[in-house]
Amino acid sequence: MDVLIHETAVISPSAKIAPSVSIGPYAIIEGNVVIEDDVVIGNHCVITGNTEIGAGCQFFTGAVIGSAPQDKKHVGGKNSFLKIGTKNVFREYVTVNCGTEEGGGQTIIGNRNLFMAYSHVAHDCKIGNDCVIANLGTLAGHVTLEDRAIIGGLSGVHQFVRIGTMSIVGGCSKVVQDVPPYSMCDGDPSKVFGVNIVGLKRGQFEQSTISTLRKAFKILFHSGLSKTHAIEKVQKDLGSTTELEYLIGFIRGSERGVCG
Questions:
Q1: Which architecture does CATH list for 201-252?
Q2: Is 124 a catalytic residue?
Q3: How far apart are CA 182 and CA 195, in angstroms?
Q4: Domain-by-domain residue ranges, the chain?
């Protein structure tokens, strides 16, 4: 089967493109790009740099993928990479930068993520699986987005922030500290308002697990106790579950501090 390339598309000779890839009008594929099976690239997209794209991804009009980092310290490109997993969707005018040599060299995106229109992923970000970044949501450099996290539209996430698994950040939020797993956060600056109950139910969490997490969040974020004393009380009163241990480990390991 021939590569489905529109006659107006511009393709670098060094690009490696699977036979089932579709490339639309006026798209540009340049650099050492590797594109696997069944990828669909829309009109006027730009795929560049040392970029690897997994099977089944979709790129809508005007997406710019693999471009140089917006970091003044970054001067090279040879050891700067972007790796994208399978079945990700990049809507209109999404921008994703490759990594910096100073920051480890790689921006990494997992599988089945949705990047809505005009969202941005900066250099050296690490994104898990099944995440959503809504319209105009932006991730600064070195942000970590864990599995099934959701970033609301028009929200900005500060560099080096971690967004925990199964958490949701409300629209128009300013996120300058780590967002704990399983949480709902919102505001400027973003604060924890409780457990992401809807997300946990959709994730088929047991009701007993959700109830335990709600109790833990009340102690951790609404009791007025210090972090150390709140964690001690959670462990004493609620025992040990996989979810609680992950939540506590996330909070203890936070370098920027956790949203209040």
A1: Up-down Bundle (1.20)
A2: yes
A3: 6
A4: 4-145, 201-252
Catalytic annotation, pick one of 120, 123, 142, 158: 123
DSSP letter, residue 1: -
pTM here is: 0.96
Q: How far apart are CA 56 and CA 148, in angstroms?
A: 19
Closest CA to 241 of 213, 214, 219: 213
Assigned CATH class of 4-145: mainly beta
Predicted pLDDT at 3: 59
Of the residues 141, 156, 164, 170, only one is catalytic, namely 141
**Selected catalytic residue, list 42, 124, 152, 158:** 124
Going by C-beta distance under 8 Å and a sequence separation of 6 or more, which residues neighbour residue 53? Answer: 33, 34, 35, 36, 39, 47, 65, 84
123 is catalytic: yes
Handedness of CA 239, 243, 247, 249 (dihedral sign): positive
User: Which residues of the chain fall below pLDDT 50?
Assistant: 1
Buried b (16+ CB within 10 A) or exposed e, 136-173: bbbbbbbbbbbbbbbbbbebbbbbbbbbbbbbbbbeeb
pLDDT of residue 1: 43
pLDDT in tens, 96-106: 999 998 889 99
Cα-to-chain-centroid distance, residue 98: 14
> Same CATH topology for 4-145 and 201-252?
no
Q: For residue range 201-217, what is the model confidence (pLDDT) as tens digits?
A: 999 999 999 999 999 99
| 142: alpha, beta or left? (left if phi > 0; alpha if psi -120 to 50) | left
